Amino acid sequence: MNDYDVLRVFCAPHGGYGNRLGVVRDGSVLPGRAERQAFAARLGFSETVFVDDPERGVIDIYTPTLRLPFAGHPCVGAAWLLDVPEVVTPAGVVGARQDGEFCWIEARPEWAPPRTLRQYATAAEVDDLPVPPPGAGEWVYAWAWEDEPAGRIRARGFPGRDDGIDEDEATGAAALLLTDRLGRALNITQGAGSQLLTAPQPDGWVELGGRVLLER
């Protein structure tokens, strides 16, 4: 089955970097969870999305080894590709909007999978961190202030799983959790150079945005 799109989500200003996302626009071609899980494992992206209703924005999200009720970069990518005002996930309804070069979603931090948010003293320390061995078991979001008054953060994401994803290039769910913890808007550079923007919203919601490009 080769009918899928590949996006890069949370690209840098010049269009580089970003986290790759597989999107199967017609989820009916792989209706079962086992089929979807096997296909996501074959693609090997950090997440793959199956669209079950393109008009309503109903999606189903898989890593190479498990199904997720919510994840940040799949929701941003799917919202951009489908051009819908909301994305429906098992965790809840995610608001979406397009604003120039950015696609934004609004979600709740409690929907995010567990992450260990580990602060370091400097961005250089984050840059120098070794990638943990596969199967370490703890999903670590390592971060440090680059410019605290401006809300600029340097981050790296280490899933700790034994599924071929040793480092996650851009992790929207972790950005939501960090924004909720710090209570302020953030401009995050993660991985090799991906950019994630966040802003707290009323009643515990957080807005998450970035650039999306169609790779294939």
Q: Would you spell out the secondary-structure blueprint of this structure?
A:
Elements: E1 5-11, E2 19-24, H1 33-43, E3 47-53, E4 58-62, E5 67-68, H2 72-82, E6 86-88, E7 93-99, E8 102-107, E9 116-119, H3 123-127, E10 140-147, E11 152-158, H4 172-182, E12 186-190, E13 194-200, E14 206-214
Parallel strand pairs: 2-3, 9-10, 11-12
Antiparallel strand pairs: 1-2, 1-14, 3-4, 4-5, 6-7, 7-8, 8-14, 10-11, 12-13, 13-14
Write a structural description.
- This protein is α+β, with helices and mostly antiparallel strands and 216 residues long.
- The chain folds into two domains: 5-106, Diaminopimelate Epimerase, Chain A, domain 1, CATH 3.10.310.10; 111-209, Diaminopimelate Epimerase, Chain A, domain 1, CATH 3.10.310.10.
- It contains four helices and 14 strands.
- Strands 1, 2, 3, 4, 5, 6, 7, 8, 9, 10, 11, 12, 13 and 14 form a 14-stranded mixed beta sheet that branches.
- The longest helix is centred in the N-terminal third of the chain and has 11 residues, at 33-43.
- The two termini are 15 Å apart.
Q: Briefly, what CATH class of the largest domain?
A: Alpha Beta
Termini Cα gap: 15 Å
Please trace the helix and strand order, writing H or E for each element: EEHEEEHEEEEHEEHEEE
Report the CATH topology name of the largest domain: Diaminopimelate Epimerase, Chain A, domain 1
Total helices: the number is 4
Supply the CATH superfamily name of the largest domain. Diaminopimelate Epimerase, Chain A, domain 1
Shape: globular
Taking the sheet with the most strands, its summary is: 14 strands, mixed
